[in-house]
Design a protein that fits this description.
single chain, about 110 residues, Immunoglobulin-like, five-stranded antiparallel beta sheet, three-stranded mixed beta sheet, about 45% strand
């Protein structure tokens, strides 16, 4: 069922989720759009790696997927994003329809390295 809905959504013109990530640290920042499920885990819908902090992002995503969250995570050690790396989830749930979503602002706080 989910696969059929996603396939139908992918056949349509994408909408865009746009914003900015601020981070005082260094290294790449991963931005993700995650679809919220009634049951089970969230689904990764789109991702983008920003090569440096303090960058804008523009993620094309399928329309009409319902509720999503936007997440950003830094990888200062260049070893893959882990639980000790700075991460943030946009505080509001967004609803994907036919219109672009602009103005997402995410701020990562640098954590102490172990």
């Amino acid at each position: 069922m989910i696969g059929a809905l996603l396939g139908l959504a992918l056949a349509q013109e994408p909408v865009h989720v746009r914003g900015e990530v601020r981070h005082s640290g260094s290294g790449p920042v991963r931005v993700e759009v995650l679809q919220i499920q009634d049951e089970g885990p969230v689904l990764l819908i789109a991702e983008l790696i920003l090569p440096r902090p303090n960058s804008t992002f523009d993620l094309p995503v399928p329309p009409n997927l319902g509720q999503v969250r936007v997440r950003a995570a830094a990888d200062p050690g260049l070893d893959g994003v882990g639980e000790d790396d700075p991460q943030v989830v946009y505080p509001r749930t967004l609803t994907l329809g036919h219109q672009d979503i602009d103005g997402i602002e995410l701020t990562l706080v640098q954590t102490e390295q172990r």
